[in-house]
Amino acid sequence: MAEYLGVRVEVASNDPEHREFLEAAGRGQFVVQRCPECQKLRYPIGSACPFCQSLGYEWAEVSGRGTIYSYEVVHHGIHPSFRPITPYPVVLVELDEQRGVPGPADGLRVLGLLVDAEGRPEDEERTGIGARVQVEFADLGDGLGLPRFRLADEPPEGEVWRYPD
Amino acid sequence: MPGLRDQYAIVGIGATEFSRDSGRTTRALGVEAVRAAMLDAGLGAGDVDGMLSYHGNDSTSSPTIAGDLGIRLNFYMDCSGGGSSTEALIGLAMGAIEVGMCQTVVIFRAMNGYTEARIGGTGRQAPVFRGGSLDAAIHGMHSAGQSFAPSFMRHMYEYGTTSEQVAHVKVAHSKHASNNPRAFYPQRVTVEDVVNSRWITKPLHLLDCCVETDNGVAIIVTSADRARDLRHKPAYIMGVAGRVNKEQPGGYHWTRGPISRVAGHYAAPIVFGQAGVGPEDIEVTGSYDAFTFTTMLQLEAYGFCKEGEGGDYVSSGIIELGGARPNNTHGGHLCEGYTHGIGHVVESVRQLRGQADDYCPNWEQGEHTYDYSEHGCRQVRDVEITMNLGWASPPTGSALIMHN
Ligand SMILES: [Zn+2]
Predict the structure, then answer these.
(1) Interface test with chain A among B118, B138, B208, by most A beta carbons within 10 Å
(2) How confident is residue B249, by pLDDT bands cut at 50, 70 and 90?
(3) What angle do CA B98, B103, B105 make, to 5 degrees?
C-alpha cells in the first residue's frame, strides 16, 4: 500500500494518468504530458491539450530543474499528516522547459514541498524566489514516488528574494 | 444583458446574527434569514416564487427552506460554490425572471461556518490522497489561504508590496466593524496588531485572515416594476458579472501568469460595460475579504488603482469611512462575519438606502451623524453607486454594480 506522511495514497482504477505519473516518479523520472499534435508540454495532468484541444498525450521526461517562482511557508498546518512537519515551505517551481509559452508570463509551474538533503522541510532562510531547485522523489511504496524539490547547487537567477522579516 | 440595466433590483435583505455557536441547523438559519428578507421587502409567502442558494455540501436546500415558510416555488436551484456565488446568482435570478420562469427570487446562504463546516476544512480532510488531491493537497496545500498564498507572495516580489500596507485593509474594516453592532469582531486593530499576530501561512498572519462564523443571509431580487411598490427604495442593478475565470489549465491557474493578477481583470469590462460607468464613478466598494490581500488584488484588477499599486491604495486612507471610496463598511469577512460574500451585497443595499444599521439612533429613518469614530456612524454620505467584487479564488471572481 502506498502512503505519504502516514496517509494512504490511492489512485482510482479509472485514473491511469495519475498512476503512470506516480509510477514514473517511483522510477526516478519526472514526467509531464506532451501533446502529440502541437508538441506542447502541460502540467498538471489534464484530459486535453489546453493549447490545441487534442485528446491525446504521451509522457515526456523533463529535467526537473527550475527556479522558484513563488512560495509560502505553512506555519498553521491543516491536514493532520502535515501538522508535525510545520513550518514547511511549499514552492511553485517554474521548470526550465517551455518557459514563456504560450505567453511571456506563462510557464510549466509545478507545486511541491521544498526539502533538504534529509527530506525534511527546507529552512525558510534558504527558500526564496529566484533560487534554483531540482526535483527529488519521495518513496511512497508500492512502486510509486512523489516529486518534491530541493535547492540545486547552482547560482540563483538574479538575487534571491524572500519575505522581508 | 446591456439592455437590462436598471430593469431589476434588490428589494429585500435579511440576516441572522453572526456567531460561533449558532446551536441551530442551517435550515433554521436559512429560514430566519429568508423570512427577515421577506419582511424587509414587505413580501408574503405568496409573493416569492423563486429561490437560489449556494453551498459546499454544508447547507439546506431551497425546497426545504421554502416549504418551511409556506412558499411554493416556480423555480429554484442550489448551486455548488462559495465566494463569488452571490453576484453570479443575482445575474441568474434576473435571467430566470426575464424569461418568465418566475417573478421574485430569494437568494440565500446558510452556513455553520464555524461549528460545522469550516472553510479551511479543519478536521474534515479525507485520510487519503487521491484524484485531484494528488495535484496540490499532497504537496501540503490544504486551505484557501494556503492555495492563495503564492499569488500574494508573488505580488510582494513583483511590486514591493509590504505586509504593513496590506494590514491597512484589516485596520479599515475593523474601524467599520466598530460601528456595526452585529459585527462578530467589533474591536479596532492596528497595523502592529496585524503584523505581530501569529503566522498562518507566510505571508498571511492570523489577522490577515477572515473570521469563520455561523450565519444565514438572504436577499430578494425582482423586476424594477414590482420593486417600486415595495417597502424600501430599490437598489437597482446596473451590471453583473458572474464567476469569471482566468485561464486555468487542469484547474491550475499558476501556469498562466501574471499569477498576482486576479479574475477581476476579465470581469471588469463585462460589468462596467453593462453599467456604463467606470471605477471613478463608484462611491463605495465591497471587495471580498477572505484575506486582506484578496481585497487589495481585486481593487487593482477592477482598475481602482494601477496594477502593482494596490499596497499604496489600501494604505492611503481611501478605503476607510471618511475616505474617497470606503470598502466593506460593514467590516466584511475580516470582522463582521463570514458569509461567502452575500453580506457584502447586503451592505451595499443598506448604503444605497441610507440605512446602514450603525449606532446612530435614527438610522432606520436614514438619519446619520457621519461621525465615524468608534461606536458611531458607518453610513457614507449621499451614496449613489456601489460595487461588489466577489471572489472565489485568484482565478475566479464576480462583480455587481448598483445604484439607488
Ligand atoms: Zn496540443
Answers:
(1) B138
(2) confident
(3) 100
